[in-house]
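Good morning,

Attaching, inline, the backbone tokens for the sequence recovery test we're adding to the shared suite. The designed sequence is right after.
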């Protein structure tokens, strides 16, 4: 029988892990969630570092409801890094929130022990004293409206890749971990990413009206792929690479190659379990490493 609580040391930090045998997904326990995050940490942490994290917590598992958590809870250990961020227009009426920054393995394990299955971060980072930098990433969320699927999102990904390439921009794909794709563009820090992304999305929608939509209204998305440019708004976040998703199974938001996208014949070809993701990292390393190294000028 799995003990209710165990004390562990992670890189010099003392943590108490609880309810490790509890199913957070059908046949996938909290202990397995923590184990996955600990093992994928070398690839995941660079994409979380210096970024205020919004956690989506599932304390009773994926069948028991969830909630978004931005503010650091009162029981946050004093060794967890937090930054105070202005949040004008907050639904809770607060001008600032104290965000957790997942910079190291102990913080990541602590979040996983809180049943934070999903980890979301903005496209900008903070400095050592908490000052906010301009975005250094641009992202497009390709969201297929039923009955369209991730294979239709794949078609749009190639169209968008070519459109951006004409502006001298390289793009890097990952699965959303649900039904769509995310395309990332590393850029030199600037405040024009949302403006540029919106123009690119609307241009694509104009040129491919039968396949692409750039408007937010859900009623226009049926059987087309919504190119969501709005996640470049500084107030918004995108699920991090290698994060689990709160779905019926523990699918992972997984970096993929363009060759893999082209070769996919069925939506399941672009769906990855934690075990598969760890094997991919062992084989390929971090396919999104260019996001951490490249800084392309935005036209």
């Amino acid at each position: 029988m799995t003990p209710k609580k165990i004390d562990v040391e992670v890189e010099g930090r003392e943590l108490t892990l609880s309810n490790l045998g509890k199913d957070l997904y059908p046949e996938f326990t909290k202990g397995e969630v923590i184990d996955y995050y600990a093992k994928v940490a070398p690839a995941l942490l660079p994409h979380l570092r210096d970024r205020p994290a919004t956690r989506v917590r599932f304390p009773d598992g994926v069948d028991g409801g969830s909630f978004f958590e931005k503010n650091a809870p009162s029981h946050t250990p004093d060794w967890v890094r937090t930054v105070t961020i202005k949040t004008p227009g907050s639904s809770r009426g607060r001008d600032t929130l104290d965000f957790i920054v997942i910079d190291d393995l102990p913080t990541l394990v602590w979040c996983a022990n809180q049943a934070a299955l999903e980890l979301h971060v903005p496209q900008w980072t903070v400095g050592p004293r908490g000052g906010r930098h301009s975005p250094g990433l641009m992202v497009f969320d390709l969201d297929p409206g039923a009955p369209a699927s991730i294979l239709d999102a794949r078609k749009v990904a190639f169209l968008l890749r070519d459109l951006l390439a004409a502006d001298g921009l390289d793009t890097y794909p990952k699965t959303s971990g649900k039904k769509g794709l995310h395309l990332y563009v590393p850029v030199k820090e600037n405040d024009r990413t949302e403006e540029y992304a919106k123009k690119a999305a609307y241009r694509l929608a104009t040129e491919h009206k039968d396949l692409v939509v750039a408007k937010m209204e859900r009623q226009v998305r049926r059987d087309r792929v919504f190119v969501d440019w709005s996640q470049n708004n500084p107030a918004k976040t995108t699920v991090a690479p290698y994060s689990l998703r709160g779905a019926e199974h523990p699918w992972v938001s997984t970096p993929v190659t363009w060759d893999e996208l082209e070769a996919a014949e069925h939506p399941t070809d672009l769906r990855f379990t934690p075990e598969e993701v760890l094997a991919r990292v062992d084989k390929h390393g971090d396919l999104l490493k260019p996001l951490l190294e490249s800084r392309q000028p935005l036209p």
